[in-house]
């Protein structure tokens, strides 16, 4: 505990000295989320992280999350210094969508409007017409569908499938998935629901369709937190990364939150509702990056300018 306090004090001092602000995702270590709150930074989903970073006056953004979040920050604010506690933290969606293959796929379907999830590399975004996060995916695709556009969606097939079912749009899917959400099991959720029939099921749409089908509310991380806060029920089964419980419990201290069951519950579960890449962020490497100023994020200027167009469309989009 004393050691933790020492880390926190050092990080606070360094943030101050460098006019830096900490931007953390809901899936990171609760210690990092708490520190972001205490220091006037931001804890949120990837859409709000992008907005916050772009609007904040700090010279340096320290992005605690995964690589695409740091890249997005750099693309939106090329004149700011963007640091990340680790450069190793990637995402199975980003990894599963190599820019060259993706570009070829787009060429083969040039009649389609290209909509990519925020969880992608700068190069993939640069090839897209639109970038979306899970919180606005439905609205954006609805809007495009109403204009008669056919969609090419990448990379998450579960989120894309959900968007397709909900909007009825013509959506061609890239075959990618999130290793965390993919592990949630319908059978496990049904069994838990049988034990707690009063529980409300909250599901992130990166989960498999069978799990989404059991949901009372399907939504992004922010929407899931909001549902727990505003629904009158007391018990919730939550299918998303466990990191979200920090903020959720803070927002609704009187409610009981249960993580939805994953595949192995031990033996075969690789990620157990906890993203291994998000977990690479720690107070220790956060402190180190501020001290050394390494792990700076750079995005090729030409690529950045191209990726900025669909990203700006996302930020400007209002229904
Ligand atoms: O699964 C993720 O990485 C999410 C939910 C990102 C986001 O949009 O906040
Ligand atoms: Fe990627 Fe899934 Fe981790 Fe989010 S939780 S960063 S989608 S692997």
UniProtKB/TrEMBL annotation:
GO terms for molecular function: transferase activity. It is an enzyme of class 2 (transferase). It comes from the Bacteria. Keywords: 4Fe-4S, Iron, Iron-sulfur, Metal-binding, Pyridine nucleotide biosynthesis, Transferase. The keyword Plastid does not apply. Its cofactor is [4Fe-4S] cluster. Pathway: Cofactor biosynthesis; NAD(+) biosynthesis; quinolinate from iminoaspartate: step 1/1. Its EC number is 2.5.1.72. NCBIfam families: nadA (TIGR00550), PRK09375.1-1 (NF006877), PRK09375.1-2 (NF006878). This is Quinolinate synthase. The lineage of its organism: Bacteria, Pseudomonadati, Pseudomonadota, Gammaproteobacteria, Cellvibrionales.
